[in-house]
Design brief:
Blueprint lengths: L3 H29 L5 H13 L22 E2 L4 E2 H10 L11
Antiparallel strand pairs: 1-2
Helix pairs in contact: 1-2
Family: Belongs to the universal ribosomal protein uS14 family.
GO cellular component, one term: cytoplasm
Protein name: Small ribosomal subunit protein uS14
Length: 101
């Protein structure tokens, strides 16, 4: 189980990303537009830098929704391999059985 502080920090980042997503997209579009004057593009870049660091989508890290584990994460199932195995062993996941031979 991950530390609760790390899980809460991740939730806070997710909220910030959602809040500033449109603003970041607009500023990035202005900064990348070659047809705009250089000073306008530079101002957009400065405004982008003033936004909170955690509002960037690259600061997010995939975590297991059950345990909060950051490693061995299956994107399709949104859980770690350990949580997947535990649920499969108990019979919580339909169609999945623990193999034995």
């Amino acid at each position: 189980m991950a530390k609760k502080a790390m899980i809460e920090r991740q939730k806070k980042r997710e909220k910030l990303v959602a809040k500033y997503a449109s603003k970041r997209a607009e500023l990035k579009a202005i900064a990348r537009d070659e047809s705009k004057p250089m000073d306008e593009r530079f101002k957009a870049q400065l405004k982008l830098a003033k936004l909170p660091r955690n509002s960037s989508e690259t600061r997010l890290h995939n975590r297991c929704q059950i345990t909060g584990r950051p490693k061995a994460y299956y994107r399709k199932l949104k859980m770690s391999r350990i949580a997947l195995r535990d649920l499969a062993s108990v019979g919580q996941i339909p169609g999945m059985v623990k193999s034995s031979w």
